[in-house]
């Protein structure tokens, strides 16, 4: 006899709720279909469902996201970095207190506390025919961010080397819910054939029909709910093994919406706006935002970043602020609207010569106009750059390009060999936008504050 088990999942929704009603409709229709057929089906979230760029997630610190997952009758979840490092310790510790589903993240634990009651190392389920399925979750080990918040994430390969045999020991089917990324999933599949299925996320990769790596089937459904993922496994009870594994994705815009969920989101949006109506300040004059010019509000925030982090120099990009602020009352919702990014302040130690190279990089027009996606940035373009703590003299060369002529600090040319404390949004510590910052070994991240918290403090 061959028994079929069905899994439906979403990953990296990032609070893009415009697709959520269609995902819920698909989940519900498949749940009812398999129930009629007498087959087991399960619904899973692979993390980064919460993203505080959205007013609903911001107003309720992710709790409304859990309410939405409950109403979608999700069965299992793991956590992503957006749940893990964009919430304060208590908010994450109690995030899933009201969850009606089970949460597993095997490599996450508090630094100085017992685990929250909802956090499981693994989840075991048995079908009516006594087929034993075990699921466990792993999340990306961003400990420079987790540690200041009071959490530790064990390196996934350390955990697997120690626990893989115990996980597989009495399980017929072993499933990893991975918020580690595509390359890590491939490497795990190569090293640990005991894992039958990896449902992945984090790097927003799309595997429309899955990918087989040795014994393991990899699958992932992109980002923002644009696709719904599904996996179907056939277990032959006579042979005692899996005889069929298939993965698919479905484009969400081809699925009708669940009307109850549409209304629920409308209600949550309205209530979130009310929560965010708390007044921050009153402006006698409006504050203009321009992505390619230095403006007073950008100058003030750059100065604030330098002073707040006690740095020698600070740098901000104008694209961090999305809209101008009008004269009159300014609410927290206004600040969230113009600075929605889950981005933290950060300092690095840089030599003077490295700071000069960073300054040169900021003059690159292509970088200023780059439409950055990821690294916490939720804006349109990076924009022009502004510095506090240094003076920059430039000149126009024969090709009409702006070049750095002199960088000085306190009226003196910057010392090329001296170490300076340099403050910047943490997004510039990733990728290759500024190699001098990214390769620094002296990064200090300031958590739980976001850049918008500094903006609130400055405007007050």
Any overview of this molecule?
A seven-stranded mixed β-sheet has the order 6-4-3-2-1-14-15, covered by helices on one side. The chain has 460 residues and is an alpha/beta fold. The protein contains 15 helices and 25 strands. The protein folds into two domains: 2-272, Purple Acid Phosphatase, chain A, domain 2, CATH 3.60.21.10; 278-459, 5'-nucleotidase,  domain 2 (Alpha-Beta Complex). Keywords: Hydrolase.
Describe the structure concisely.
This protein has 460 residues and is α/β, with parallel strands linked by helices. The protein is built from 15 helices and 25 strands. The model has no long low-confidence stretch (mean pLDDT 96).
């Amino acid at each position: 006899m061959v028994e079929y088990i069905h899994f439906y999942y979403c990953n990296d929704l990032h609070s893009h709720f415009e697709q959520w009603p269609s995902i819920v409709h698909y989940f519900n229709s498949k749940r009812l279909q398999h129930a009629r057929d007498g087959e087991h089906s399960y619904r899973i979230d692979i993390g980064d469902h919460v993203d505080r760029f959205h007013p609903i997630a911001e107003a309720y610190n992710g709790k409304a996201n859990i309410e939405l997952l409950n109403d979608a009758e999700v069965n299992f979840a793991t956590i992503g970095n957006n749940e893990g490092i964009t919430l304060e310790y208590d908010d994450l510790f109690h995030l899933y207190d009201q969850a009606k589903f089970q949460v597993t993240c095997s490599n996450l634990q508090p630094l100085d506390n017992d685990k929250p009651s909802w956090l499981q190392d693994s989840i075991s389920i048995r079908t009516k025919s006594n087929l034993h399925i075990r699921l466990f979750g792993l999340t990306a080990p961003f400990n420079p961010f987790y540690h200041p918040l009071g959490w530790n994430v064990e390196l996934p390969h350390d955990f697997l080397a120690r626990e893989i045999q115990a996980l597989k020991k009495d399980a017929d089917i072993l499933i990893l819910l991975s918020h580690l990324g595509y390359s890590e999933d491939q490497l795990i599949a190569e090293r640990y054939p005991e894992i039958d299925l990896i449902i992945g996320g984090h790097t927003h990769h799309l595997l429309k029909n899955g990918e087989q790596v040795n014994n393991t089937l990899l699958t992932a459904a992109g980002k923002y709910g644009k696709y719904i993922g599904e996996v179907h496994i056939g277990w032959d009870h006579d042979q005692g093994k899996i005889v069929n594994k298939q993965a698919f994705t479905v484009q969400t815009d081809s699925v009708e919406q669940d009307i109850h969920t549409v209304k629920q989101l409308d209600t949550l949006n309205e209530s979130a706006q009310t929560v965010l109506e708390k007044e921050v300040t009153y402006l006698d004059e409006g504050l203009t935002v321009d992505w390619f010019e230095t403006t007073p509000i950008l100058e003030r925030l750059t100065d604030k970043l330098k002073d707040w982090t006690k740095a020698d120099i600070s740098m901000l990009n104008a694209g961090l602020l999305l809209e101008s602020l009008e004269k009159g009352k300014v609410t927290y919702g206004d600040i969230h609207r113009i600075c929605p990014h889950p981005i933290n302040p950060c300092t690095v130690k840089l030599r003077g010569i490295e700071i000069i190279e960073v300054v040169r990089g900021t003059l690159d027009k292509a970088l200023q106009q780059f439409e950055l996606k990821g690294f916490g940035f939720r804006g349109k373009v990076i924009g022009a750059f502004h510095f506090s703590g240094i003076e920059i003299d430039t000149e126009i060369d024969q090709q009409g390009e702006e070049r750095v002529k002199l960088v000085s600090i306190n009226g003196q040319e910057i010392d090329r060999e001296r170490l300076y404390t340099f403050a910047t949004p943490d997004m510039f510590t990733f990728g290759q936008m500024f190699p001098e910052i990214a390769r620094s070994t002296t990064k200090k991240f300031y958590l739980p504050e976001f850049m918008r918290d500094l903006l609130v403090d400055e405007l007050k």
